Structures
1.
Amino acid sequence: MHNKSVAELSNALASGEVSSVELTQHFLDRIKQEDGKYNSFITVCEDAALDEARQADERRSQGNATPWTGIPFAQKDIFCTNGVRTTCGSRMLENFVPPYDATVTARFRDAGAVCLGKTNLDEFAMGSSNESSYFGATTNPWGENRVPGGSSGGSAAAVAARLTPAATATDTGGSIRQPASFCGITGLKPTYGRVSRYGMIAYASSLDQGGTLARSAEDNAMMLNVMAGFDPKDSTSIDREVPDYTATLNEPLKGLKIGLPKEYFTAQLDPAMAQTIRDAVAEYEKLGATVKEVSLPNAHLAIAAYYVIAPAEASANLSRFDGVRYGHRCEDPKDLMDLYTRTREEGFGAEVKRRIMIGTYALSAGYFDAYFLKAQKVRRLVQQDFVNALKEVDVLMSPTCPSPAFVQGEKTSDPVTMYLEDIFTIAINLAGLPAMSIPAGIVNGLPVGLQIIGDYFSEARLLNAAHQFQLATDWHQRTPA
Amino acid sequence: MQWDVVIGLEIHVQLATKTKIFSGSSTAFGAEPNTQASAVDLAMPGTLPVPNEEAFRYAVMFGLAIDAEIGRRSVFERKNYFYPDLPKGYQTTQLEQPIVGPGHVEIDLADGSTKTIRIHHAHLEEDAGKSLHEDFHGMSGIDLNRAGTPLIEVVTEPDMRSAEEAVAFAKKLHSIVTSLGICDGNMSQGSMRFDVNISLKPKGQEAFGTRTETKNLNSFRFMEQAIAHEVERQMDILEDGGVIDQETRLYNGDRDESRSMRSKEEANDYRYFPCPDLLPVEIDDAFIDHCRSRLPELPDARKTRFKDQYGLNDYDAGLLSGDAKLAAFFEDAVSHSKDAKLTANWVQGELSARLNAEDRLITDSPISGVQLGDLIVRIADDSISSAGAKKVFDALWSGEGDNVDAIIEAKGLKQVSDTGALEAMVDEVLAGMPEQIAQYKEADEKKRKKMMGGFMGPLMKASKGQGNPKLFTDILKKKLDD
Amino acid sequence: MTISREDIEKVALLARIRVNDQQVTELENDLGNILNLVDQLQSADTENVKPMAHPLDAIQRLRVDEVTETNQREAFQAIAPATEAGLYLVPKVID
């Protein structure tokens, strides 16, 4: 049952082969049995999930089910869920139970999906290994001591371990794609503005984008059908028609023009990684695509620009955590300054503090022009590179990450080595483009992802390209030993 | 040494929109604490701002009223600082690209001259909540109902040279925003708050001295006092050979004291940057045309019209045209009374005195313009005496009655103006006062005038207060002087 | 680029995060490394490049001025650390 895709489960529910209550109980049992090994969930909603499942079965019996009615899924613990604790992986929000839903939450609710629980993440989505969570690190199902990637590591690990068929995620610098790559599953970061950010706890507002994690491209398409769309509550949400992303999955790829950014295939790239990606690209050629080299001359500046812009925005976004209206508050503050400084010292972990402080510094008097303004200008250069490249080709392809999943603790001592993990993903967030990571091979016994980058609002095309690859290969079907 | 005073103002004007600038919460004043604070206003995690169109319309209307450039593209920025009344830890405001660019306002001075005050710009921003200092076991209480109320902050050039000019400007601005209907103008509820920048320089010197900023003055009187206080303070320092520190000061109007807020400022570095949750706002011609079509008559135009249409003098026209609501009241009254001068006197006299005494706005007046107009008709046609008119006014004010003629009738205030009847009464009364008549006849002109009262009292008594006093006087005089 | 202890203390104060001496030492190293990474920016030629604040060149929509929110004080204050008489409590505010 747990090996079935969302599409298959949807059919099984429709045919009456299984009920949502049975399905939900099955996944809840699996979480109970297996998640001790992974720590992929922070909160499991056992009672609420079964309630939702009963309602879904009722709704189906009344004949107004959607493809998602009764399907269990998991929510990254960054999306607010009315009545269910939403921690963002932080002590600051350890006991925060929002009295409102994120728009993404409301959309899944409306579709009748069943929320199994809230998945682990790097604290406030700041990290690439899930090791910065206050609720303990998540372990990659592919290797006992391997990280699942981050920040959506709990979602990715839960999907890979078959604890949920699908999970929501967010991506600010690679937080969907890198965990997808590390855990051997499929993930999509949509165009900035495609999925509402309302109720999705902000890390860096101009870079954050909600997206999808599941095993196949088809399941990602089904998720995006629920999540995408204009939201009047999010000023940066784009009012633009949402296609049925499953409708074009079977379009042939003949004539698809693929660009390989030469800056992403340098001598420093691990040869096994490079070979895996070249093999995947060769598969696309077999499917009728053509390949050419393109250039992103400013790609090397993306990480530097990101680590100014994202922390700067975060430094302001996280100012609301002050111990006054919700969340952690220090014991017996002696004055206002003590309330603020001790609440925030206790409530935030080391990586969050580092980013708040770097961001504060980059915006402070005397440094604004040299850091923040300069980074915003470089951001435009980086974006222009993509715009230019995408005039020549339909999609760009690259490795998602420089390596397969690394060992826990390997990169925690030096933040900068951790930041370099996102070298292939981060520029896409600066540009606001959609991108996917799909399983494309195994290196050293661990899965490796292919990144596919498209033009603005070309999610349907990306999903189509990913689906066709998955019809021709079985990397996405591989399971951890 | 002689000193020039240089004053610039920053004025926070609360916009009279129904909802907050970034959320659909009501802005109504006086609700129970935190009952008008939504998830967005409380900066709950994940919530996002969506700007209010009407706030932009109001800002543009203000821009048009002061003949300013409209910012075709305006950008919200975050001003970062921690304070318990600021839920997000930053104020969303405009800095580099405000909605209203340079403009100007004319003010009238006591000597009859006018002066132009230049407006540097006006920007949209959100108000903060309130800290209540009643003692909650040594803690303060925070009410966030006001958090997110839309404001325009109007920033002038340092064009004012005295407290008088600054107050004249402040009153003029009050009159403009209330006429536009974009602010309720209620100073006691904080709808307009003034920050005053003041510096001194030796008379005739061009370069400005170091300025201080006195924050958060919420009445014209406090503003005037605070300026006088600060000018004196700076003068004392400068004349002792000292230097002025550039600092923010807080003025306590009740004690006429001020103190530095420097300790608070030292650690501030607001780290402004464009708010990534909001996109640039573009204002097109259609938007501006719509705002222009909503512009009502402005105070300057109304003053000219009051002089032309009603024949009012400059002083009366100025006072009655400044406040749109007061002007409307006057026009309601005059449309019934048809006597502009008498109506102007009553509005500025009895009515204003009563409103002030009870701390009421013209909009809360228990007497309508129409009622006052009706009353004035009866004064003008001699139906009632001025003393009787005051009684009618009282009855209207207290709600004892609502129809002028009915009150006159019920209270028996109608004057007798039939000369025949009055003459008969005079004859009757004089017949009983031979001694007084004899004394009168012997008295000189000056004394006679004084003695008239002695006859009027019994006359009014005889007429049960209904005799027209003017006619009584005329008849009396004729009879006594014969 | 290095960052001094004084800078770190100043930034920590602006950000309202308490730091002890040992943390300042660690931050000196970590933030210094991060600043070295971001200093690559200075090599970019950005003359005549407009800063980019948003990925899409979109324009702000404006909301109709209608009250859409109802009083939810009870629900909001149920999750607040300290309230009394409908107010959020904080250590004494001194202007």
2.
Amino acid sequence: MTDTRQPPTDTQWPLWEVFTQREQGAPHEHAGSVHAADAEHALQNARDVYARRGEAISLWVVPSSAIVASTPGDAGPFFDPGNDKAYRHPQFYKVPRGVRGL
Amino acid sequence: MTGPTVAAPRETPPANPLAEFLLRLGDDRLVLGHRLSEWCGHAPILEEDIALANIALDLVGQASAFLAAAGEAEGQGRTDDTLAYFRDEREFRNALLVERPNGDFAVTILRQFLFDAWSVLLLDALKTCGYAPLAAIAAKALKEATYHLRHSSEWVLRLGDGTDESHARAQRALDDLWRFTGELFQTDAVDEAVAGMGIRVDYAALRSRWNDMVSDVVKRATLALPADQPAATGGRRGRHSEYLGHMLAEMQSVARAHPGATW
């Protein structure tokens, strides 16, 4: 699982991945990316690009280079869900009423 | 810049000092907001383009609130739009600092930083003033201004303490803009008159806090604080630099070509 992504070919600042949290208790979800010179700068750019209309109550920024990604070559062995083995899926449980966001 | 607040020569107070005071607050933000909007599509990078446009929109929004309040205080049926688009240069009451041309990115950022630090302190003082409509607008605007100051301070730090080129440009911008900061702390008959209505701002204290804030960031940015110099003034009484007229011509052209148009 080596990182085969190309290094950024533009001459801009390093790339940062942005995660936004919509409300208390909700997960931080990937919103997109911004260019920035450093962490504080990235946080501000993320705020302006992804949270200026009150879309978030919390932000994370992570250097894109710190992300380890799977590659297309992994698709088979990693993600083939084994649909023939029904016993591996928790589909026989009923989610109790009133449980949301599961 | 540690001198005492200089009082402008005494003039006859305008007929409606409250409206005048609100006009000053509105015009500062309208003019600066429009200046920033000139960066739209031209900023150094996409993220900054969005940030500047966003701050421009905040400022225009604040201007709209202050101008609407000014129109109300004036009581002659003028709205925020009428005031923004159908007054001539001599009727604008903004400080000279905000009408300075954008220059390079360093000029824009330093102008913004000097203004933001002042705006945060002023709005903080006004949010507890005795005139409720103004206090409400100030409290709302303060939140935005606090973020603007964070944005501009961080940029001052990065430009000042960045490359030789960015340092030189930031220093030049600071030196060029410094003489326009004195006007922000000047008081006149309008300020005296509104003090009687519960709008009291201690400009001497405000100036000393502003000095502390500005010199702290300037120092950390490895820039040098310019020496004291005579303040360039006149904006509060409608005497502007050659730059405002051009800006207004562009800003007002559509509204004047199609008065009352809506979309």
